[in-house]
Design brief:
Number of strands: 7
Oligomer: single chain
Helix content: 40-55%
Shape: globular
Structural class: alpha/beta
Distance between the termini: 48 Å
Strand order of the largest sheet: 3-2-1-4-5-6-7
Order of helices and strands: EHEHEHEHEHEHHHE
Largest sheet: 7 strands, parallel
């Protein structure tokens, strides 16, 4: 029996991108997966496609977060073993053009909401000796001009991972962070106001900055998430899944 078979897993931001790929992968392993996201049409379509549970809601809203937790526990027969805190947004721009309201919004979505969700799910996770997985970003590994808002939120997530791992370890809850490199997902298109072709070209230009000459895929990240979900002695880990992007190499230079 797979270690994750029958376990209740909530994945926020599960309607597309890395969340969707992870939901699909974990469902094939027999996990009872619930995905959430703001757009009901996307969540319903994704849940039908995968064969998992879906609940529409905004992770920045307290009532919606509780509804996600409740729905995930009910779907798994009254248990919630793991939370994959994947919901997020992107905001970019030169430092002298940034708007304070938009900065507060991205910190709310990318950091505060995930912190609150951890506290709200704590009782369930402690009962199952489960875990939380946060999603970082290669923007914390290499300084890319214009990305300060997004990079700052992901840097906060990495620190949060280690503090919560220490804090929640006495409750039997593990907390880990996966740090993906360049993977073409909907957020690259939506937040960058790009076509899918333009986003692919932008990520393709990053390949020389990787040690491995291969673009990342959602499955690469999903498999790393699977590992930390089922690794009982792994907590506080920040694991790069980026083709060596964070190593600082420039091939062909």
């Amino acid at each position: 029996m797979n270690a994750l078979e029958g376990s209740g897993i909530l994945i926020t931001g599960g309607g597309s991108g890395l969340g969707l790929a992870t939901a699909q992968h974990l469902t094939t392993l027999g996990a009872k997966v619930t995905i959430s996201g703001r757009r009901k049409d996307k969540i319903d379509a994704a849940a039908t496609q995968i064969g998992c549970n879906g609940v529409a809601g905004d992770v920045t809203n307290a009532a919606d977060r509780q509804a996600m937790i409740d729905a995930a526990a009910v779907f798994a027969g009254g248990r919630l073993d793991h939370v994959v805190s994947n919901a997020g947004n992107m905001y970019r721009g030169p430092i002298d053009t940034l708007e304070e309201g938009k900065l507060l919004d991205i910190f709310h979505t990318n950091v505060v909401a995930g912190m609150m969700l951890a506290g709200e799910a704590k009782a369930h996770l402690a009962e199952q000796k489960g875990s939380i997985v946060y999603i970082g970003s290669g923007h914390t590994r290499r300084a890319l001009p214009g990305a300060s808002p997004y990079a700052a939120t992901k840097g906060a997530i990495q620190v949060l991972t280690q503090v919560l791992a220490a804090e929640l370890g006495t409750d039997g809850i593990r907390v880990n962070c996966i740090v993906p490199g360049g993977v073409l997902t909907e957020i690259n298109v939506r937040a960058g106001l790009l076509t899918e072709e333009e986003a692919a070209q932008r990520l393709g230009a990053m390949l020389p900055m990787q040690a491995i000459d291969k673009a990342g895929e959602g499955q690469d990240v999903a498999e790393a998430i699977e590992y930390v979900l089922r690794a009982p002695w792994t907590t506080g880990a920040i694991i790069d899944v980026d083709g060596g992007f964070g190593l600082g190499v420039t091939r062909g230079a």
